[in-house]
Design goal:
Blueprint: E1 5-7, E2 13-15, H1 24-40, E3 67-71, E4 77-79, E5 82-83, H2 86-99, E6 104-109, H3 115-127, E7 132-136, H4 143-154
């Protein structure tokens, strides 16, 4: 752990080079960077604010490679973060389909969006030639809570 000492032929001491690298500062910097990324990563979530319905289906494989299309409560359609008109959406998706024939789409519909609007969006996707479509939902909710809430609303 320390520097070694060499003796020369004349009896004088010479310091040998220190050949070990101290990794403690490197580890400290890496841990600080890790904490910074762990704190900021959830804040970097892009998209629009939607109140997604809850479901208990399985997650789509490779959903991070899927294109996210959203409908908000006011029936605005978003491709990623940008608002887009239905005609422009079809054109853009056709172009994307040409470059990636295995294109996957995930539809995120706000809870207040009607079922018919989601179906209209799905028919637009069919016009664009998209066949792999998934529906995004929120986290799974306990069925007992849902049953109690529906019974309260009936009363």
């Amino acid at each position: 752990m320390g520097a070694s000492v060499k003796f020369s032929t004349r009896g004088k001491r010479q310091k040998a080079s220190f050949a070990e690298i101290n990794v403690t500062p490197f580890v400290d910097v890496m841990l600080v960077l890790l904490v910074i990324f762990m704190v900021t990563a959830p804040m970097m979530t892009t998209g629009i604010s939607l109140d997604l319905p809850h479901g208990d289906g399985q997650a789509m494989e490779e959903s991070d490679r899927a294109v996210d299309i959203s409908i908000d409560a006011k029936s605005k359609i978003y491709l990623g973060d940008a608002t887009i008109q239905p005609e422009a959406l079809v054109k853009k998706l056709k172009a994307m389909q040409k470059s990636n024939p295995d294109l996957k789409i995930v539809i995120s519909g706000d809870r207040a969006t009607s079922y018919g609007q989601v179906i209209e969006l799905m028919s637009l996707l069919r016009l664009a030639g998209i066949s792999k479509v998934g529906l995004k939902t929120g986290d799974m909710v306990d069925t007992e809570v849902l049953t109690k809430n529906s019974q309260i609303k009936k009363k």
